[in-house]
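Could someone model zinc ion with this protein?
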Amino acid sequence: MIALRRDLHAHPELGFEEVRTSGIVAAQLAEVGISVHRGLGKTGVVGTLKVGDGTRSIGLRADMDALAMPELGDLPYRSGTPNTMHACGHDGHTVMLLAAARHLARTRNFNGTVHFIFQPAEEGRGGAKAMVDDGLFKLFPMDAAYGLHNMPGLAPDEMAVVAGPQLASSDSWEVVFHGVGTHGAKPHLGRDAVTAAAQFLTAIHTIVARRIDPLQPAVVSACAITAGDFNALNVIPDDVRIGGTARAYSAAVRDQLEAEIGQLAQGVAATFGITVDYSFKRRIPPVVNDADVTRRALLAAQTVTGRPVVTDFPPSTAGDDFAFLGAEVPGAYVWLGNGPAVDGALHHNSRYDFNDEAILTGARYWTALVEQELR
Ligand SMILES: [Zn+2]
Ligand SMILES: [Zn+2]
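Reply:
Sure, complex below.
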């Protein structure tokens, strides 16, 4: 499995392009007699293993995709594909679930149905939603869904399992101020969208500070801005386009962020006598762990790690589209240590690598979870 993990690392594929990876996954599942369904969400694979007459059914999810970024480390198995890199450890996630599936197919020490969900395109390309839209829950009914992500900073035999919010909603917004362009020397003859945009950017941070409940986490960031031309510094442009992200852990705060950003943009535009277009694109809901299912995950983690399971790990303001599974059935998303961040190489860093020492812990966790959940 270590050799396979390094092979996947050397051959990373972007979201919905995991043709080689999903082919290997499907072959490894079929080899041990697991029934395989391919093509769900384009390159997604679901392996189903039913043992005994138990009626309970669960889904275990691993993501398979890499990121569009260069790998700058000097690993012997570094990416051979330009600008494509497993910088989030999904190579490790794939291998750990495969290892558990193959072990469970041989030992069959449980009673019920387990679906091994190998998801494409987790990194912002909508793989989980594509699988759900293609009928994941209709074809493979399940009572609970489980997810796992590696986490630098925890030891490779250490896990963190916490009920409640784990990852934030991840939505994007865009504001376009439409002024009236004019000569830079004669601003009074136009309507200056640049000044309006500057006011908006200053005021946007009052949304979290002054409008959201101080006890509710939220993030609003402006991350892109386009206006004017540096070859024409005597021209006030017509339009200024600004885009950013919004994060929350509850549906109520998410709704509020959508409303507040738009209201502020409209207010600023009115103040400056210009117009504005506003759009808010809902991408990923928050990942919120169900209490009962999380208790089952915690029991499994306690069985396999040689140390206490971390139960007060802080939530992350990143997002994960496992949320689309957790929105359909009760879910639990847990963290598995990746060891220290070598040279500061955290997720999405060009020198990040999944820690092979974690494979055994992760595979044991999935195995114990199935054997305990489907007793
Ligand atoms: Zn990632
Ligand atoms: Zn990831």
